[in-house]
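pinned: reference chain
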Amino acid sequence: MEYQAKYITEDIKLSCYQDKFFKSDIMFEHHMLIWFISGETKIVQAEGTYMFKAGDIFLIPRNQLATIINYPKDGLPHKTVVMHLTADWLRGFYEKLHVKPAAGSVQKIRHYNNHPLLQSCMSSLIPYFDMQELPENIAHLKIMEAVSILRSIDPAIDHMLANFEEPGKIDLADYMEKNFMFNMPLEKFGYLTGRSLTTFKRDFRRIYDTTPQRWLTQKRLELAHYQFVEKKKKPIDVCYEVGFENLSHFSFAFKKHFGYAPTELLASKA
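pinned: its structure tokens
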């Protein structure tokens, strides 16, 4: 995989993948504003799957689990401008605005298509990636411009950006049933359910009477089986969407669990 990145600061980068595709399971620590220059991205989250392409602009909220699959498209690399909206920066921005975000507001990806104001803001960053000496405070000013535009075109955005609460203790079973397909360290699952790793494992054993690793593998394989039978999806697509890292390991685990390979199942349903 050939990957290149250029930075204005650690919070603003130009990202480029040249290879066939890149897949990662991620928990976003910061809100991310992304402008697509070329390529496509599939984002799989608990509540649904999103597809983004050249020209799209979208905002991914922090503390969300997602499977990200990046593809080149039409002979062009997967290329994006990414702006991190960190909690520290946003606290400074909002401290004088006296904004009170709504409690329990749903944090979902926001899609702004190719809004001209946002596109102008994000595209204006391109020349800075090749400059050796940058104007003082340019990153701060550009992030401020982007957030100001977001607030003008999306009145509800403050409920996301001005919410600095960390995950509290929530229903573990409900959360895991919705998010088992994301290949995250158990520490991350613990954090997102408001638990230490030790407490997470203890509560998990009490609820499911098995280990998280065994339960996760079984749930992912059952979801894969459903995707094959009901959705007629290809093994290469199902493998990554249900939380496996490579096709050979997925096929081996699937056959061990069900007694037949994904290709055999699909052939029997053809």
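why pinned: The longest strand covers residues 31-38. The CA atoms of residues 128 and 135 lie 9 Å apart.
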